Amino acid sequence: MDLEDEIIMLPGPVPVAPRILRAMSRPMINHRGEEFKEIFGRIEKGLKEIMQTENDVFVLSGSGSCAMEAAISNIIKNEKILTIVNGKFGDRFHEIAKRYGDPVPLEYEWGDPIEPDDVRRIVEEEKDLKAVAMVHNETSAGITNPAPEIAEIARENDLLFIMDGVTSIGGIDVRVDEWGVDIAVLGSQKCLGMPPGLSMISVSERAMDRMVESPPLYMDLKAYKKSADKGQTPYTPALPLFYALDEAINIVMEEGVDARIRRHTHLASMVRDAVKEWGLELFPRLNDVSRYSNTVTAIKMPEGISADELRSRAKKMGVVIAGGQERLKGKIFRIGTMGNIREKDVLMVLEVVERVLRG
């Protein structure tokens, strides 16, 4: 199978548009020069529009987990933070927090909805909490969590709210300023539709004022702010990926942020409708359809075929889909609908998956 013929429908990485790939082939430039400063300025402006924020926005040469760790390590030093876990990446927030402070976990079964009343109860019971960390869109379980409600609880109790928007920003309606998100992170290889390797982070003035002394050197967000004021990064940026980000943002702006979100919603609904037609069951089982992720759909494995066999046979037919992770391994499969994919891509993938399921 020629890799160029494959359709990758994962919850990241995603297919990359040819014009983004071409942008990456540009010659290197002086990352302390005026040309980079112009690129940096366009990126900053575009990211603020996509994230719907006026907060500072920084670009880190590292994956989404890099930005997650930057968010925690700049805020927490031997202090308490509430970590909300209902999937693999909520668990990652908790594991990061254990390295820098004293996390107080609120744990659910993977895929179970987060209840704001549970969060409010812990916030009222626990003393000396500094922040709340939560994943907005938990791709490991195909569920979108109630970020606006949790942000409101945090703000009411004078806590910082840290939100992983790695797989939601740019594909699901996210309003960083309106919701009151103090720190939001996203990853390059998700809804922005570019290669892995960059992560973006927005930081409120409130969060900047409460940062710890001596955070990790490479992820020191105050250093990023100081450099950003000059149109630079504090350390050598991954220039080809900055070129890609610049072009990816151009594509987002040409489509329009609202239109892009509507497209993601439509593509996810196509997958959910197909699952119903196949007689399969979505994972998790939710009463509120708006809680299902619009960037990845998780489906319970039917009897008679294993997740590995399903994925292997689909791959031979040119389609790459995801299985479950860790405790959900073998129990679900997942179809991503994020980035610059089109309706015809989804139709082709659904046809292949249906053929495999029907044997």
TrEMBL record:
PROSITE patterns: AA_TRANSFER_CLASS_5
Entry keyword set: Aminotransferase, Pyridoxal phosphate, Transferase
Keyword Secreted recorded: no
GO BP annotations listed: glycine biosynthetic process, by transamination of glyoxylate
Residue ranges constituting the Aminotransferase class V domain according to the UniProt record: 28-326
GO molecular function: alanine-glyoxylate transaminase activity; L-serine-pyruvate transaminase activity
Required cofactor names: pyridoxal 5'-phosphate
Gene3D superfamilies, sorted: Aspartate Aminotransferase, domain 1 (3.90.1150.10), Type I PLP-dependent aspartate aminotransferase-like (Major domain) (3.40.640.10)
Domain of life the protein comes from: Archaea
PANTHER family xref list: ALANINE--GLYOXYLATE AMINOTRANSFERASE 1 (PTHR21152:SF24), AMINOTRANSFERASE CLASS V (PTHR21152)
Family: Belongs to the class-V pyridoxal-phosphate-dependent aminotransferase family.
Protein name: Class V aminotransferase
Source organism phylogeny: Archaea, Methanobacteriati, Methanobacteriota, Stenosarchaea group, Methanomicrobia
